[in-house]
Design a protein that fits this description.
The longest helix has 17 residues. Strands 18, 19, 20, 21 and 22 form a five-stranded antiparallel β-sheet that branches. This protein has a four-stranded antiparallel β-sheet with strand order 1-25-24-23, with no helix packed on it. Strands 2-3-4-5 form a four-stranded antiparallel β-sheet, with no helix packed on it. Strand 6 and strand 7 form a beta hairpin. The protein has one domain: Neuraminidase. It has 380 residues and is mainly beta. It is 9% helix and 39% strand. This is 6-bladed beta-propeller. Keywords: Signal. It comes from Cyclobacterium qasimii.
Length: 380
């Protein structure tokens, strides 16, 4: 009898250990980024895509050197341009930080004011920023998103730094930090929103420079990541309290900047590891695409003085490549993928189309047209 019981126990143990069980975790999905379409613009100059009007298939480009905006259709035909001097009354200034479409209006955020134009770049109105600019001035990033709160159209904006006037090496800066401003298109009011989460590494007793989010707005939710952090954030604007939640991003590797003591300054002279950085974030078809570089240890970083700048860049690109993760659901992520070397995604529009910059520096000769690619996430 004892032998029979022992045999039964062994059989059960064998079935549990060798057969499929309810707690087995499905293997992670792998993806590739592939080109599916393109738009070509007959323009001599270096353009950056700032916004896409998804309904009308209009593309808003900016040329940095000339501080010029160009509006095209999907065929690349130029429909209108804006190249007034920065001190013109109808201008946004000398720097176009970001832009977006709101209906049939173009909204451009400069360093100190927000300007609204029609599709022919005729001036409609502007709103002055009510506080002095803090931190870095970022140009060409997708830092302006439309959101509807009740019956009012607002913009969620990252203006380069928090509204709090204290310096970034002071503890009060982090205690009063706001990631975004909520801008009313009607009144022009700037309301600070989205404080740092208690689990944020920027709330752990150290100072940091250049805290920058990458974000997307989906109805009344802001999804975002910081460039030098490993948390995925969601801010539900419909909740008055506890609207900000976080979860860890399972990077394969990510070297964190340790920060520096309050009231001090960052040491740029001592050799340090190359920190990890999230370069882009997009929300595509209810999936979250995160592009990042893991960083390089001090031992793996090539000595700068022994090679040319071009060789040093090539070595770094090989040792510290641009990778991506896809967040498929809360806490569920894909395998790590390698980004293609001939293009980099830069923008996602309202139709979930992912637009990418062509790496013209890799071409054998100067192209006749400026080209942006439409890319897609393809399961493997």
């Amino acid at each position: 009898m004892k032998k029979l019981i022992l045999l039964q126990l062994c059989l059960v143990n064998y079935l549990l250990s060798c057969g499929p069980t309810a707690i087995d975790k499905a293997p992670a999905t792998s993806y590739a980024l592939e080109i599916v379409d393109s738009v070509q613009v007959d323009f001599l100059g270096s353009l950056s895509l700032y916004a896409v009007h998804s309904t009308k298939d209009l593309f808003l480009f900016h040329e940095f050197r000339q501080n010029q905006f160009i509006l095209t259709d999907k065929n690349g035909e130029v429909l209108s341009t804006f190249d007034q001097p920065g001190d013109a009354p109808s201008s946004y200034g000398n720097t176009a930080c970001s832009a977006t479409f709101v209906g049939d209006s173009i909204v451009v955020m400069g360093r100190q004011k927000l300007v609204i134009y029609n599709l022919d770049f005729d001036y409609i109105k502007s709103h002055q920023k009510p506080y002095a600019g803090q931190g870095m001035t970022y140009s060409g990033f997708d830092h302006l998103h439309k959101v509807n709160i009740g019956d009012e159209t607002n913009l969620v904006a990252f203006t380069g730094g928090a509204q709090h006037p204290v310096a970034t090496n002071q503890e009060d800066y982090y205690n009063h930090f706001n990631t975004f401003d909520l801008i009313s298109l009607d009144s022009g009011g700037y309301v600070p929103i989205t404080p740092l989460h208690p689990k944020s590494r920027y709330k752990q007793g150290k100072a940091f420079n250049f805290i920058r989010p990458m974000f997307q707005v989906n109805e009344d939710k802001i999804h975002f990541v910081f460039a030098t952090d490993t948390l995925f954030h969601t801010h539900d604007l419909s909740k008055a309290e506890n609207g900000l939640t976080v979860e860890g991003i399972p990077f394969d590797d990510f070297i964190l900047n340790p920060g520096y003591p309050f009231r001090g300054s960052e040491d740029y002279d001592t050799p340090k590891p190359r920190k990890g950085v999230v370069e882009s974030y997009f929300r595509v078809d209810e999936k979250d695409l995160i592009l990042y570089r893991s960083g390089l240890s001090l031992e793996a970083t090539p000595p700068r003085e022994t090679v040319s700048r071009k060789e040093w860049d090539e070595i770094n690109a090989r040792l510290n490549p641009l990778k991506f993760l896809v967040r498929e659901a809360k806490g569920i992520y894909s395998e790590v993928g390698l980004c293609p070397t001939n293009f980099t995604p830069t923008y996602v529009d309202g139709k979930n189309r992912l637009w990418a910059r062509q790496h013209v520096e890799l071409l054998d000769q100067e192209p006749e047209f400026y080209t942006i690619y439409q890319a897609a996430l393809v399961p493997q």
